[in-house]
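To: structure subgroup
Subject: Chain for Friday's discussion

All,

I'm putting the inputs and outputs inline so they're searchable in the archive.
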Amino acid sequence: MHPRERRTTRRHFLFASGGTIAALSGADALLRAAEALGNPFSGAPMGPGGIPLARRDHPVTLPLYSDNGPIDSGLNLEKGPLNVFNWADYINPAILKDFQKEYGVKVKVTTFENEEEALAKLTSGQADFDVWFPTVEYLSRSVAGKLIQPLNHHYLPHLKNVWPSLQSPFYDQHSRYTVPYTIYTTGIAWRTDKVKKAPSAYKNPYDIFWQAKPYSGKVAILDDQREALAMALLRRHVYDVNTESAKLVDRAEGDLAQLTKLVNVKTNVNDYTDVPAGKTWISQAWSGDMAGAPNYLPKGVKPTVLGYWSPASKAVIGSDMIAILRGAKNPVLAHAFLNYLLDNKKAVENFSWNGYIPPLSAIHPEKLISQGYIPKNLGSTIVRESDFEHGVSILPLTTQGQSLWQDAWSKFKAG
């Protein structure tokens, strides 16, 4: 089975319950634990975990706690098995087999479909995992709640392979708790054989959604409250995609509501299958999904029918991470696993399977095309370090901000 063949993608944050993030079980338990620690910071906007909100112009060094320190150096590898908690189909099975063979241990992967499901399990006290794949939105809360442990870089020599900007990212200065896993953009996918005017041909490429009346019923946006509303903000040249201005968020919701009337817009996370299958002709999409989209083209249809656009600057850029859980029974082996995934050769092999690019300096964009990993016409799905530096990121909000965005999304979904 190809990695994209699943019910939901790695980026499927669907809060269909209508409640705010803080009201959901796993996140709520973690939030209470974090807030109980008090506020070790002052003078900066605080997130739900009692840690300043990480922003590109306000990097955050996550705190260390006396009762949750990194493991010592020079320890022997445990015998395993290594228990990995990951998004469904987000790592190449061949990589796992190779790791098992090299280290003489078993690797057991348990999957989750969304972050809330993961947090509920991790905070239940019944989970038994060593490695977890979190997102930036929940990082500070996980640290303040002591859900993950600090890393010992002695065991991570391959961290030097990572882009310099992500060796000490603004959301986790000095990589105290995480290492990067993949990088991706959010943009627009379209069928070049169905849509007469490409996004780049518009004065404002995002207008393609609002001017797609001839393609009514064939237009989709991501079923992800932060991504969809952020796209509406960007169309209005609002580049703070973490704004907590009620006026701006409400206007973004109103703009999305127009799409229902204008083009009968669909909301889903099927960009990687629906665009190549021709079910959707214009779609908000993730670059990693579109890099893998040629695998879903009908027999005989060439990849040239697929197009992907994201802005040269101010594109939404995401960076997924890997962390080690505080209660890991195999912390040394877990460090070895993180280091293994940062190996240049293994990272490329993993990318060739899941379509999401690892942010490693040894990966040259031109070679990804010349070596056949990505078709030339989908070269726009490649993410460079300069893209990350000039992009915008979806980041944690305050509790009030979370409620604001959730209410706007619920209103849009209710029609």
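Points worth raising on Friday:
The CA atoms of residues 77 and 332 lie 5 Å apart.
The first strand starts at residue 82 and ends at 87.

D.
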